[in-house]
Write a structure and sequence with these properties.
The protein is of the alpha+beta class. Helices cover 28% and strands 23% of the residues. It has 3 domains: 191 residues, Phosphoenolpyruvate Carboxykinase, domain 1 (3-Layer(aba) Sandwich), CATH 3.40.449.10; 275 residues, Alpha-Beta Complex (Phosphoenolpyruvate Carboxykinase, domain 3); 86 residues, Phosphoenolpyruvate Carboxykinase, domain 2. Strands 1, 4, 5, 6, 7, 8, 9, 10 and 11 form a 9-stranded mixed sheet that branches. A hairpin with a 2-residue loop joins strand 30 and strand 31. It binds guanosine-5'-triphosphate, sulfopyruvate and manganese (II) ion.
């Protein structure tokens, strides 16, 4: 399908190393993809769901030790250690290649090697980037075909050009020998012994964030873990916002939000451009423009329902692959916790065991039907609120950048930074409670700068410096905000209703961008006047509730500032501008 010598050499090398029985090129045609699906069903990799109720939909179950990104086994490999981050795993490139070569030796014996040419971004657009993923996993092929643009058309555009090399084998699915390695200096990704999501769909986190963040640093653009949405006003004007929240902290939900009734009646609409990744460049007019390099959504299933996120739910009703959700054997559909109150009576849980909603484990806790990090892989075109700018290769102009995380206390519902550099400081010092999207403890507060802690492909201090540099390049930078939908009361319940009602906060954010609303100055930035958050039509939320949500406790924030200082101390190359911001924050808190 190509005469690109570098592609052919990459395949030859891989054949010699991994010893597959055959090589199959993914051409991107529906006929070939359908044949792959059929084969995957025959091999027991996919379960075909009820085609009347869920046309084109399938279920996949992973092995039980392979259910999330493995940050502990994810590496940035470079010549010098300080070109990665002290808070990420590093391996010297040469050592990593040697180690991986041993693991890949003969690992595809008797298997097919699939060649996936894929484009991140619209095929042929000047901002898009091409990758070639070689994999022995048909599950990877079928997911990549939803999440990115794949096939012959990509090779046509590639011509003799360069591409990001990705090599993946699920090998033995061994946890001890699982490695996700990135070589930003060589445009290379190598992943072995997993077959799950971000570990193996190499176009997504590995390329579009880790490798791309490095490319962005060298080429003067940004790759960020951000959703992109457009708010359409009753007058037809649309303003765009990009928002970075850590994994499983609400990006997909915010990206697809349906405004509350009071907003809908006035004519407000929200459009989804992207739900996970944004590539951001400086436009000719001196503003920042964002594109979503993906072509589909790899979204968290649990909690998705007709009320919380109807757009996501509708997006998954056709041509979708579900991973690790529960199966309803009575009607051939799927179920997950938080879908509805009717779990299957005759179900099979994500582990493949008979299951119904009433089962309890030895400790008396309910047995979950779906894994907390179970996911849907769904085409973007299915999304009822997909923006008409989705394919626009120039992207959409950003009015605001929003950071946010899960904080039971500390962070208010929303605040605005006082300048670009102060906004970079806010992003750099973000913290959030960990979630099931990565293996390890859940609910532990950790620093997750710009929601990129697991995804920066180079030194974190240099990454902060790049943000500061980008601010100098834009005449008209977006305003930077921080939000927290997750403050809890004394019983641990979320106070803010969240989901569609987050529109009320977006309205304030955009009003601030246009100088249409006042704010209160606090030591951490500008906070809304409680009465400026529209609570019309909200049950049980009063102006006093909002006041509480916006409260900033000086003592808690002094501790927070100490935490930030400690975190900066763990990093190298933190820019002086950010240290100055921290010092200024401390001074304001002491005043
Ligand atoms: P990744 O795909 O891992 O990057 O996650 P994400 O950031 O897209 O998170 P997602 O929107 O899938 O939400 C993750 C979880 O947070 C789900 O269980 C949601 O129900 C929950 N969630 C999302 N938005 C809100 C909100 O506004 N309030 C509350 N309380 N929960 C929310
Ligand atoms: C995330 O963890 O941020 C995800 C899922 O979006 S994964 O693709 O597995 O990284
Ligand atoms: Mn994500």
């Amino acid at each position: 399908m190509t005469s690109n010598k570098k592609v052919l050499a990459f395949i030859e090398e891989t054949k010699a190393l991994c010893d597959p029985k055959e090589v199959v090129w993914v051409d991107g045609s529906e006929a070939q993809l359908e044949a792959f699906r059929k084969q995957a069903v025959e091999e027991g990799i996919l379960i075909k769901l009820n085609q009347d109720l869920l046309p084109g939909c399938y279920l996949h179950r992973t092995t039980q030790n392979d259910v999330a990104r493995v940050e502990g086994r994810t590496y940035i490999c470079s010549k010098n250690k300080d070109d990665s981050s002290p808070i990420n795993n590093w391996m010297e490139s040469g050592e990593a290649y040697d180690m991986l070569k041993k693991l890949f030796k003969g690992c595809m014996k008797g298997r097919t090697l699939y060649v996936i040419p894929y484009s991140m971004g619209a095929v042929g657009s000047k901002f898009s980037k091409i990758g070639i993923e070689l994999t022995d996993s048909i599950y990877v092929v079928l997911n990549m075909a939803i999440l990115s643009r794949v096939g012959r058309k990509v090779l046509d555009v590639l011509g003799d050009g360069d591409f990001v090399k990705g090599l993946h084998s699920y090998a033995e699915l061994s946890e001890e020998k699982r490695y996700i390695c990135h070589f930003p200096e060589d445009d290379t990704i190598i992943s072995i012994n997993s077959n799950y999501g971000g570990n193996v769909l190499l176009g997504k986190k590995c390329f579009a964030l880790r490798i791309a963040s490095y490319l962005g640093k060298t080429e003067g653009w940004m790759a960020e873990h951000m959703l992109i949405l457009g708010v359409e006003y009753p007058n037809g004007e649309t303003k765009y916002i990009a928002a970075a929240f850590p994994s499983a902290c609400g990006k997909t939900n915010l990206a697809m939000l349906i405004p509350p009734e009071v907003y809908k009646k006035k004519g407000y609409k929200v459009w989804c451009v992207g739900d996970d990744i944004a590539w951001i460049r400086v436009g000719a007019d001196g503003r920042l423009y964002a594109v979503n390099p993906e072509n589909g959504f790899f979204g968290v299933a649990p909690g998705t329902n007709e009320k919380s996120n109807p757009n996501a739910l509708h997006t998954t009703q056709k041509n979708t692959i579900f991973t690790n959700v529960a199966y309803n054997a009575d009607n051939g559909t799927v179920w997950w916790e938080g879908l509805d109150k009717n779990p299957p009576k005759n179900g099979i849980d994500w582990k493949g065991n008979p299951w119904n909603g009433d089962m309890k484990d030895a400790e008396g806790k309910p047995v979950k039907g779906a894994h907390p990090n179970s996911r849907f892989t769904a085409p973007a075109v299915n999304c009822p609120c997909l923006s008409k700018e989705f394919e626009n290769p120039d992207g959409v102009p950003l009015s605001a950048i929003v950071f946010g995380g899960r904080r039971a206390k500390t962070a208010p519902l929303v605040y605005q930074s006082t300048s670009w550099n102060n906004g970079v400081f806010v992003g750099s010092s973000m913290a959030s409670e960990t979630t099931a999207a990565a293996t390890g403890a859940v609910g532990v507060v950790r620093r997750d700068p710009m929601a990129m802690r697991p995804f920066v492909g180079y030194n974190m201090g240099d990454y902060f410096a790049h943000w500061i540099e980008m601010g100098k390049k834009v005449k008209n930078p977006p305003k930077i905000f921080n939000v927290n939908w997750f403050r809890t009361d004394d019983e641990g319940h979320f106070i803010w209703p969240g989901f569609g009602d987050n529109m009320r906060v977006l309205e304030w954010i955009l009003a601030r961008c246009e100088d249409k609303v006042d704010a209160v100055e606090t030591p951490i930035g500008y906070v809304p006047k409680a009465e400026d958050i529209n609570i019309e039509g909200l049950d049980g939320i009063t102006v006093d509730t909002v006041k509480g949500l916006l409260e900033i406790d000086k003592n808690t924030w002094k501790e927070e500032a100490d935490g930030i200082e400690k975190f900066y101390g763990e990093l190298t190359r933190v820019p002086q501008e950010l240290k100055d911001e921290l010092a200024a924050l401390k001074k304001r808190l002491d005043a």
